[in-house]
């Protein structure tokens, strides 16, 4: 028997309330966390996990969907406190998570800095500084598209590039659930592309949406927006149409 918990973390950023939704998969052998929040989020993560009667100390594995800071920001701290946790990521993302390659988000922010207005530059400098502060950590296991992992009733890795080259989603065939991470987000109750203006490859992101249509999905969970309420296939098809007209 396996369980699934949506770990909603509410916080304030720039005076606005925001929510991110990591996920925990649980069975008699494992408790697997998918993504771990911004830097300095360990306390918030712990509180959110505890609400589902799970302890961070019981986490056995951490699947990272990609190296954006809201997904890996607390990774190094989490690994320091709980060194037994096994870190898993796509083979293309591992060098960025481990600090062997410069964050693509940092490269993007630095390359666009000079084009910003004087009013925008202080915020950009703050963002760049935060990206530079992300502490790397070792990836213990790399995965690739359609790789099947035997934990928690069976996990299939779905490579969904676009937002980031090594971005992955996680498909749980037993419950027909897709943990989409940032492949899609929910805005005003509808599916959308996550920050299309900052998506590394928008055409690739659309192709990833088409790839998701290959799966039988009853439940779709987005990192930004939580559980989608509606016809998943129909909503994905509509989103694809919006970008391919």
From TrEMBL:
<feature type="domain" description="Metallo-beta-lactamase">
    <location>
        <begin position="19"/>
        <end position="224"/>
    </location>
</feature>
<dbReference type="InterPro" id="IPR036866">
    <property type="entry name" value="RibonucZ/Hydroxyglut_hydro"/>
</dbReference>
<protein>
    <submittedName>
        <fullName>MBL fold metallo-hydrolase</fullName>
    </submittedName>
</protein>
<comment type="function">
    <text>Counteracts the endogenous Pycsar antiviral defense system. Phosphodiesterase that enables metal-dependent hydrolysis of host cyclic nucleotide Pycsar defense signals such as cCMP and cUMP.</text>
</comment>
<dbReference type="InterPro" id="IPR050855">
    <property type="entry name" value="NDM-1-like"/>
</dbReference>
<dbReference type="InterPro" id="IPR001279">
    <property type="entry name" value="Metallo-B-lactamas"/>
</dbReference>
<dbReference type="Pfam" id="PF00753">
    <property type="entry name" value="Lactamase_B"/>
</dbReference>
């Amino acid at each position: 028997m396996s369980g699934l918990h949506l770990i909603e973390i509410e916080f304030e950023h720039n005076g606005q309330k925001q929510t991110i939704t990591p996920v925990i998969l649980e069975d008699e052998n494992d408790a697997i966390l998918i993504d771990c929040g911004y830097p300095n989020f360990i306390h918030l993560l712990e509180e959110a996990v505890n609400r589902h009667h799970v302890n961070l100390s019981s986490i056995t594995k951490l699947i990272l969907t990609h190296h954006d800071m809201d997904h890996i920001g607390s990774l190094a701290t989490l690994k320091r406190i709980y060194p037994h946790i096994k870190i898993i990521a796509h083979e293309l993302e591992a060098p960025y998570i481990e600090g062997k390659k410069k964050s693509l988000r940092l490269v993007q922010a630095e390359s666009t800095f000079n084009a910003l207005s004087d009013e925008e530059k202080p915020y950009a400098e703050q963002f760049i500084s935060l990206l530079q502060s992300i502490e790397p950590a070792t990836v213990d296991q790399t995965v690739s598209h359609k790789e099947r992992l035997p934990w928690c009733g069976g996990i299939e890795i779905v490579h969904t590039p676009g937002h980031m080259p090594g971005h992955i989603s996680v498909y749980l065939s037993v419950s027909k659930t897709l943990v989409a991470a940032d492949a899609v987000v929910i805005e005003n109750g509808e599916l959308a592309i996550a920050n299309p203006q900052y998506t590394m490859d928008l055409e690739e992101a659309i192709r990833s949406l088409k790839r998701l249509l290959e799966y039988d999905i009853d439940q779709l969970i987005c990192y930004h927006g939580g559980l989608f309420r509606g016809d998943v296939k129909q909503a994905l098809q509509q989103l694809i149409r919006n970008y391919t007209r």
